[in-house]
Specification:
Phytocyanin domain-containing protein, Immunoglobulin-like, binds 2-acetamido-2-deoxy-beta-D-glucopyranose, elongated, alpha/beta, 7 helices, five-stranded mixed β-sheet, about 325 residues, Phytocyanin_dom, Phytocyanin-like, signal, 16 strands, glycoprotein
Length: about 325
Amino acid sequence: MARGMNMLVLMVFLGAAIQSCRAQTTHVVGDSLGWVVPPGGAIAYSTWAANETFVVGDTLVFNFTTGMDDVAKVTKAAYDSCNFTSPISRWTNGPATITLNQSGEHFFISTFDRRCSLGEKLAINVSAASGPAPAPTTTPTPPAASAPTPTTTPTRSPVTYTVGDVVGWNVLVNTTQAYALWAANKTFMVGDTLVFNFVNGTQNVAEVTKSAYDSCNTTSTISVYTVPPVRIILAAPGEHFYTSTYPDRCSLGQKLAINVTSSSATTPSPSPAATTPSPSSLSPATRPSSTATPPSTSTSPSPPSTTTTTSERRKKKTRRSL
Ligand SMILES: *[C@@H]1O[C@H](CO)[C@@H](O)[C@H](O)[C@H]1NC(C)=O
Ligand SMILES: *[C@@H]1O[C@H](CO)[C@@H](O)[C@H](O)[C@H]1NC(C)=O
Ligand SMILES: *[C@@H]1O[C@H](CO)[C@@H](O)[C@H](O)[C@H]1NC(C)=O
Ligand SMILES: *[C@@H]1O[C@H](CO)[C@@H](O)[C@H](O)[C@H]1NC(C)=O
Ligand SMILES: *[C@@H]1O[C@H](CO)[C@@H](O)[C@H](O)[C@H]1NC(C)=O
Ligand SMILES: *[C@@H]1O[C@H](CO)[C@@H](O)[C@H](O)[C@H]1NC(C)=O
Ligand SMILES: *[C@@H]1O[C@H](CO)[C@@H](O)[C@H](O)[C@H]1NC(C)=O
Ligand SMILES: *[C@@H]1O[C@H](CO)[C@@H](O)[C@H](O)[C@H]1NC(C)=O
Ligand SMILES: *[C@@H]1O[C@H](CO)[C@@H](O)[C@H](O)[C@H]1NC(C)=O
Ligand SMILES: *[C@@H]1O[C@H](CO)[C@@H](O)[C@H](O)[C@H]1NC(C)=O
């Protein structure tokens, strides 16, 4: 008990010391203004951005109404001239959540009408993340690594899973089991997001029935998504089946089946990747499986990345050093 308290104090202290290394901040672009044609022109977003610190792994949320607007990632030249003929990426469903996975300058514009030239454009500088948990010389005791969420949070915050991780959504030459293996140790809950990465025009993502999945008959589908990266928010519990309608892809192994549990979470999960193991019961041998479960890309289950608390703290700490 006393040891637990000490660890907690130590974690809080370390957290304050190295927070910029670990915290992932969600930035709602323009805050309550959202993603619109700003009344005073583009200065609204440059002012907003100047007050934020963007680090690799953070997310931007562009809040707009689907069908009435969009957001496109573009080059500096395209940003400067509001040329939206060939964006790098484009998100059409609002609110759009975009993970900043590269450092450097990023440019976003609306491709609707003259909205960009009227000021609906955002340029930001993203700094590199300081690396994962820099070998803490001050914490020799192993339990520190798993201490952050002991008994306080019975449910975890939504997780974004990148399907296949680095290999993305594809036919892999060496195996037809890739996505079954990828899904095997993961816990999917209502509210989580699947991201399917692929090269535009070379794949699609089709949600299908179990029988279509089993037989690889894709003549009828529940829905088909064509524009990468495809982001699917898991809205309903139960089994979900995904494949591609491109010829032979399904039978070559481009298929994913998952079980989604409801987020009210009192149902005992059959998965070994339990969300809140008691730290004291963890042997060093079992801990890696719980830390290896979350995807590398964006959200991690332990620190709930609520917008205000983390960003507020980081603003206080890191703005001055830039
Ligand atoms: C900048 O951030 C601080 C702290 O979060 C806030 O109080 C202030 O209003 C912000 N300034 C602008 C111009 O948004
Ligand atoms: C997006 O805008 C709507 C309507 O203004 C608002 O209700 C909602 O809270 C906003 N979402 C975010 C993430 O700011
Ligand atoms: C817009 O960008 C495209 C592709 O980069 C280019 O071909 C076109 O000339 C540009 N249009 C203008 C008006 O600069
Ligand atoms: C993040 O990386 C993935 C590929 O790993 C890419 O498809 C996606 O567009 C990237 N996001 C941004 C905002 O660049
Ligand atoms: C990013 O930072 C560089 C170097 O400080 C600066 O020259 C550039 O204007 C910045 N870009 C944006 C979009 O803020
Ligand atoms: C199959 O290939 C992918 C991509 O090259 C690689 O990441 C994965 O480890 C390979 N799997 C096996 C079982 O060899
Ligand atoms: C899943 O977890 C078990 C036990 O934690 C481990 O033995 C197995 O290798 C894991 N499988 C994959 C595909 O990671
Ligand atoms: C993706 O490819 C389709 C054709 O396959 C094309 O119409 C569309 O403009 C492309 N989108 C992007 C963002 O490149
Ligand atoms: C595939 O499914 C469709 C309707 O879902 C059905 O009409 C068709 O006969 C099926 N094809 C095969 C080869 O089973
Ligand atoms: C989902 O869970 C049920 C019950 O545990 C199991 O029978 C089924 O095979 C699972 N489906 C998938 C796609 O993992």
